[in-house]
Amino acid sequence: MNTVFSVLTGFLLCWIVIIPVFPQSVQSFDIVSFSLASTWKKEAQQDWLAYRVENPAQKTYARILLYPSLPSSGNLETDFQAEWNDLVLNQYKPTQIINESLTDYKDDWKAKLRVASFVHHQVNQAVILLMLTDGKSKMSFVFLTNTEEFQKDFEDFGSSFKFQPASIKSSNSISQPANQAAPPNPIPPSSTSNQSPIIKPSNSASSGSTQPNYGVSTFPTKFDDGWNSVPQEDWVEVTKVDTKVLLHYGRNFDDAMRQDVVGINWNALIPSRYRVIQRQNYSYSTMNFPFYYAEAEVTEIASGKTMYLGFLVVAVSGVAYVVEVQSPSKAQFTHVFPTVESIEKMRGYNKFGLSLRDLTGTWQSFSSSSISLYNVYTGGNAGMNYASINDQFTFEPSGKYSSKHVGASSSYGTTSHFNDQFSGNASVSHWEMALSNRKDGRTDAYHAHFEAVKGGKILHMTHKQWSGLTFTLIQSR
Fold first, then answer.
1. Distance CA 309, CA 296 (A)
2. Which residues, including other chains, have CB under 8 Å from residue 289's CB and lie 6 or more apart?
3. HSE, side-chain direction, 13 A CA sphere, residue 246
4. How many CA atoms lie less than 13 Å away from 129 in the CB half-sphere?
5. pTM metric for this prediction
6. Domain 356-475 belongs to what architecture?
7. What are phi and psi of 206, to 5 degrees?
8. pLDDT band at 47 (very low <50, low <70, confident <90, very high)
9. Beta strands of 39-194 (E only): which ranges?
10. Which one of 33, 186, 236, 434 has the lowest number of neighbouring Cβ atoms within 10 Å?
11. Using alpha carbons only, what angle is made at residue 185 by residues 183 and 186, rounded to the nearest 5 degrees?
């Protein structure tokens, strides 16, 4: 890792004195134009922009990820920590912060940069977050590498920025200024990963596909680690080369099922599609093996093919979700899924991008909780504390939205209520949503996606700045 850290140290120093750049290909994204050597290949352009360079012989790589500009809070440290949490901490789980710097950049822009190490698939990696801000807008860049050989490219790129006014957007930018997407997988595409990185949907409606969409029109979701997800009537089908994973939609996890979790789900899903040659059962143990799990060699009835199955039941909040893995052999199965945990992670691939057509309508959620209080001396009932919240969003085909948030809570006999209502414009991209005119007139940005379920879909929204603010919504009309 020492060589990686040396390039990072050098990169930090390049921000103290801006290095002149020789003419290169000038490109633009959002509010910035920049220069980058032609050896860097554009990797993707959805709600973000990425460039990649690799040296296959040395198994080295580097990536540059550019994210759209966002309004600044006016506080540089607050802005930077929010970007660090969103773009680095939650994605790469860095193990150590190596260094950071704050310098004047150009004009009224300041540059803050932080360097950290992380490990991916037992390989040392380095991540750099660079945030530029003028106090009104902020724009972030993430650099990923496992080598020092691309140091000069990093330096030239970082010193080449030219900013346009925030009101002027490059033709390469997204149409929603307050949107950012989660970073892609940090390692080169030729490597294997079971992560759930950046997702690249294809719009089935625009492609002329006649395949049913089961409530989601933006599919397949193409993850950059090679997995592709497509919604089906009874499951989400996730495929990669010759391995297929079926994410069965949830079933009620009732008292009867608790008596034989694997057996009841197996009998409901397997006999009609497979002939079992040999099955290996595993005993659930809270301490030693906390999984409802089985494996089997089977023959698929429809095709006559022999294959190896993994069968995992995951219980979440009273719902049983089955993850079924189909592999051509046991050797291939254990290569792709070395642990049961790696199978469970496949549930994260039930993700589909937003479209205004799918979003149009009214979405609701309701939650409540309560706790009974007792006197510690007498044992007598001392009352109850409770809270309940109802959230409702309505999205119109024109891009307008309205929302209503009603709640009540009681604590030690005192009850309070709230009834907040907002309306404005909704800017929607595949993986993000920006809602204007929220509390105090601000624009709130959310990570967002659909989860496919039997007969419909669930809308998930997570506030980009306050990740604890989430909405899990079902469509009511």
1. 5
2. 282, 283
3. 17
4. 28
5. 0.58
6. Beta Barrel (2.40)
7. -75, -20
8. low
9. 41-45, 49-55, 60-66, 70-71, 96-104, 110-120, 123-133, 137-145, 162-163
10. 33
11. 95
Q: What is the pLDDT of residues 281-324, one digit of tens each?
A: 998 887 778 899 999 999 999 999 999 999 999 999 899 999 99
Burial of 53 (0-12, 13-18, 19+ CB in 10 A): buried
Give dist(CA 401, CA 439) in Å, integer: 14
Euclidean distance between CA atoms 235 and 245, whole angstroms: 10
Coil/strand/helix, residue 68 = coil
Give the Cα separation of 113 and 99 in Å (integer): 8
Task: Specify the 3-state DSSP secondary structure of 400.
Answer: strand
For residue 175 the two structure tokens come to 């149409």
Asked if 460 and 449 touch (Cβ cutoff 8 Å), the reply is: yes
Residue tagged 């690799």 (tokens): 54
Nearest in space to 275 (alpha carbons), one of 302, 248, 236: 302
Q: How many angstroms separate the most distant Cα atoms in the chain?
A: 82
Which helix (H) or strand (E) is 261 found in, with range? helix 261-269
The model's pLDDT over 412-455, given as tens digits with 9 standing for 90+, comes to 667 888 899 999 999 988 899 999 999 999 999 999 999 999 98
Q: Which two tokens stand for residue 329?
A: 């052999």
54-66: pLDDT as tens digits:
888 888 888 888 8
Give the separation between CA 31 and CA 66, rounded to whole angstroms: 11
CATH architecture of 2-163: 3-Layer(aba) Sandwich (3.40)
CA dist., res. 134 & res. 119, Å (int): 33
Cis amide bond preceding 220, omega within 30? yes
Domain 2-163 matches domain 356-475 at the CATH topology level: no
- Strands (DSSP E) contained in 349-399 are 361-374, 381-395
DSSP alpha helix (H) spans, 15-143: 76-83, 90-92
Buried b / exposed e along 221-232 (16+ C-beta atoms within 10 A): bbbbbbbbbbbe
Of 176, 175, 180, 167, nearest to 129 by C-alpha is 180
Name the CATH architecture for the domain at 213-348: 3-Layer(aba) Sandwich (3.40)
Instruction: List, edge to edge, every strand of the sheet that includes 162-163.
Output: 25-29, 32-36, 162-163
| H-helix or E-strand spanning residue 357 | helix 356-359
Helix (H) or strand (E) holding 273: none
Q: How far is CA 198 from CA 5, 48, 110, 229, in A?
A: 26, 10, 28, 13
